Amino acid sequence: MKAVSPQSQVLMLTVFDDEDKIFRAIRNGASGYLLKHTSPSELIAAIFDLHRGGSPMTASVARKVLVHFQQPQSTPSEGTLLSPRELDIIKGLVAGYSYKLLADHLHISIDTVRSHIRSIYDKLQVNSKTEAVLKAMREGLV
């Protein structure tokens, strides 16, 4: 899906809750991950959350992600060093800001935010916002 439409937001809805499948989905561009026992009202709320720039996850999935990142952090490698502005952008993404909010907050255009995002994707060797946030957190950049 991301290869055809990189700007698309993908919300996984599945019965699989093992870490391998969760992290593989996120690495491949999923912006959220819900289990099929999610109620219809929670699913609708998650879709709206996703549209507003959030990354909805079932509580048990979110716990697995948190536990994964609470393990000791590695130091960033030379190739993943981000500029101060790119760090501002990635910190905003971690905080859940949309591109528009980031642009307003940093007093830059949305196109400039997108340009920085592309640079961040290249430096971190990722293909999605979720993957960039996860890698930045894993490598201790934020």
Strand and helix map with partners:
Layout lengths: L9 E5 L4 H9 L2 E6 L4 H12 L7 H11 L14 H11 L4 H8 L3 H15 L4 H10 L4
Parallel strand pairs: 1-2
Can you describe this structure?
This protein folds into 2 domains: 10-69, Response regulator (Rossmann fold), CATH 3.40.50.2300; 78-138, Winged helix-like DNA-binding domain superfamily/Winged helix DNA-binding domain (Arc Repressor Mutant, subunit A). It is built from 7 helices and 2 strands; from the N terminus they run βαβαααααα. It has helices spanning 19-27, 40-51, 59-69, 84-94, 99-106, 110-124, 129-138, and strands at 10-14, 30-35. A two-stranded parallel sheet has the order 1-2. It is globular.
Q: What would a concise description of this structure say?
A:
The protein is mostly helical and 142 residues long.
> What is the CA-CA span between the terminal residues?
28 Å
Q: Strand order of the main beta sheet, please? A: 1-2
CATH superfamily of the largest domain: Winged helix-like DNA-binding domain superfamily/Winged helix DNA-binding domain
Q: Please describe the biggest sheet, giving its number of strands, its sense, and whether it closes into a barrel.
A: 2 strands, parallel
- Rg over CA atoms, rounded to whole Å, is 15 Å
User: What oligomeric state do the depicted chains represent?
Assistant: single chain
